[in-house]
Amino acid sequence: MSTADALEQLSHDDYQRDGFVVARGLVGATALGLVDREIESAFAQPPTTVTPQGVPIVVCWRHHVGGARTIVTLKKLPALSALVRSAAMLGLAARLTGAKHLQLFETIVFNKPPGEGEPFAWHNDASYYPFDPTQLVSTWIALDPCDAASGAMELARGSHRVGAVAPVHVKTGASLVDATTALVPSDPTGRGFEVMAPLLAPGDAIVFDGFTWHASPPNRSARQRRGLCIRYLTHPARFAPELGFGGAFARQITTEPGELISSPAFPVLWAR
Question: Smallest Cα–Cα separation from 206: which of 26, 53, 66, 82?
């Protein structure tokens, strides 16, 4: 079966059942090579203390002890910008989620260096974001081979149906809110969920729901482990600062609480 046929067979029903799908070969070698070179160039820049305003950004996160982040504007990375806006990316996200609205709000690269990349505690993404409704889809693309040794992502199948949980410190798993809000368990199998850790080749992707529980172990290998994550809102959303802590993108929100998120920093890329 060709890569295109395999991607076409990924279904809305699979996504709704499991909270994620694995998209083999989503990004071809040529396009991935161009994106990879741009990302390496971005990581070569010094850490950033100022968040650009009014334009989409890319956060390059060095995920190790003392690791800092570099933020660049998406327009400075033309191959990545084209990928984020591509029909292949948007069409797959829309088909899996059933969305008629896809609005870019975050592009982030996770870099776990060999032998020192830290773990990510179990969490879901939706708990961190100041949106109402908090409905989003993430496409996590492997830039390097991802396996158990290098810190492959683990996902709890069907956990997206649980709904809201407490946001946690991603390095320790400690709650960032009051103790009355439920946490994602440190071992989802104890709650009856099957944990899966797909092996990924460069260009493979995991497309997952914002409420899906996921984690990743440290990189114990001699290889770097980088993943590119592109996140889209799947419905028009209002700014609800009381609901989440956000990330670098949250500092770009100029909308008043209760108003729809609307800014050149967060372009609507798909509307049907």
Answer: 26
The residue-averaged pLDDT of 6-11 equals 90
Pure H helices in the chain: 3-9, 12-18, 29-43, 78-84, 87-97
Which tens digits make up the pLDDT trace of 117-141? 788 899 999 998 999 999 999 999 9
Q: Hey, is 90 helix, strand or coil?
A: helix
For the chain, list the strands marked E by DSSP. Answer: 20-23, 57-62, 69-73, 101-112, 120-123, 131-132, 136-142, 154-156, 195-196, 205-209, 214-216, 225-233, 238-239, 268-271
Domain assignment present for residue 21? The answer is yes
| Apex 233 CA angle, 128 and 7, nearest 5 | 115
112, 129, 134: which is closest to 216 by C-alpha? 112
Q: How far is CA 239 from the centre of its chain?
A: 20
**Domain CATH code at residue 164:** 2.60.120.620
User: Mean pLDDT across the stretch 168-191?
Assistant: 82
Nearest partner of 105 among 255, 257, 234, 240, judged by Cα: 234
Range of the domain at 192: 9-48+58-129+149-225+244-252
> Into how many domains does the chain fold?
1
Of the candidates 13, 20, 22, 23, the one whose C-alpha atom is nearest the C-alpha of residue 213 is 20
Q: Is residue 220 part of a domain?
A: yes
* pTM for this entry: 0.95
> Which pLDDT band holds residue 180 (cuts at 50, 70, 90)?
low
Is 168 part of a structural domain of the chain? yes
Q: Is residue 29 part of a domain?
A: yes
Radius of gyration (C-alpha) of the chain in whole angstroms? 17
Q: Pick from 105, 118, 116: which is nearest to 59 by CA?
A: 105
Overall residue count recorded for the chain in this entry: 272
